[in-house]
Design goal:
The protein is an alpha+beta fold. It has a four-stranded mixed beta sheet. The longest helix is centred in the C-terminal third of the chain and has 27 residues. It starts with 29 loop residues before the first helix and ends in a 7-residue tail after the last helix.
Length: 272
């Protein structure tokens, strides 16, 4: 009966609720967010259409000195190399000036890309459901409401098979130190747990951004892989630099997950 149960993260009609709000930002991070708002305006001016927070800070779960600042900025035109350089400057200045955050990054997109048919169930869903408006007109007003269905699963994470060769290249190019590998373990752990969760999301029938809850949801349907996913969820929050973890991701868990994902949901629509 699991496929008929309405889980957390959905409204009364079964649509995914938008997570996060400016009101949930923990007090220590509010000066960081205020500075981010000002610096984005200074950097992009009239080129900026809208800006958003996402991640642990607007969800209210951020940890001082441990959490990063995640921003998405939609420009009125396609981002240029100069725009990307400006975004890096903003990110670096915020990381330098505010010890409350442990780095961060700004995703740059265009308004047209965010509202394109190709991105409706990927970038569009991300903005409408996982991003908190910070500046400008909210693009969610032009996007549909979303259910945790197979179409959403396919278009969000149905490209893992394409990513794995790039991951292998990144591992090979990473310095042979725990410090250098740790961010890679964190990134890949989070990506695999989120992909595993969206694999079962339509059956689980709900939404969460908590990695441990995602791993538990996955474990209901794939108990033989449960321990791997729960370990990955822990490493997504507290990564180590163990090279064996990275090898297991690209040689075992990742290939299995990509194959099972394609079998259940199909493959994500190709991007240019």
């Amino acid at each position: 009966m699991a496929d008929t149960v309405r889980r957390p993260g959905l409204d009364a009609q079964g649509f995914i609720e938008r997570e996060g709000s400016l009101g949930r930002i923990p007090h220590p991070f509010r000066p960081v967010v205020a500075a981010a708002r000002d610096r984005l305006l200074d950097a992009f001016g009239s080129r900026l259409h809208s800006a958003y927070l996402y991640g642990s800070i607007p969800r209210g779960t951020a940890r001082v000195g441990r959490s990063d600042l995640d921003l998405l900025t939609a420009l009125r035109a396609e981002p240029t190399d100069a725009d990307r350089a400006d975004a890096r400057t903003v990110d670096e200045s915020l990381d330098k000036d505010f010890p409350q955050i442990d780095g961060g990054g700004t995703l740059l997109v265009s308004r047209a890309q965010a509202l394109s048919d190709l991105e409706t169930y990927d970038l569009g869903w991300f903005i409408a459901c996982l991003c908190t408006p910070l500046l400008g007109e909210d693009l969610a007003e032009y996007l549909p409401r979303y259910r945790p269905d197979s179409l959403l699963a396919r278009e969000t994470n149905g490209d893992l098979a394409l990513l794995l060769p790039r991951w292998r290249d990144r591992i090979a190019a990473t310095a042979d130190t725990d410090e250098a590998r740790r961010p890679l373990v964190r990134f890949m752990s989070r990506h695999l747990v989120r992909t595993a969760f969206t694999l079962v999301m339509p059956r689980w029938n709900g939404w969460t951004s908590d990695l441990r809850e995602m791993a538990d949801a996955f474990a209901e349907y794939y108990p033989s892989r449960a321990e791997q996913l729960r370990t990955a969820a822990v490493l997504g929050y507290e990564p180590t630099g163990d090279p064996a973890v990275l090898r297991s991701y690209v040689d075992d868990l990742g290939p299995w997950l990509a194959e099972e994902y394609a079998r259940v949901h199909g493959v994500k629509a190709p991007r240019p």
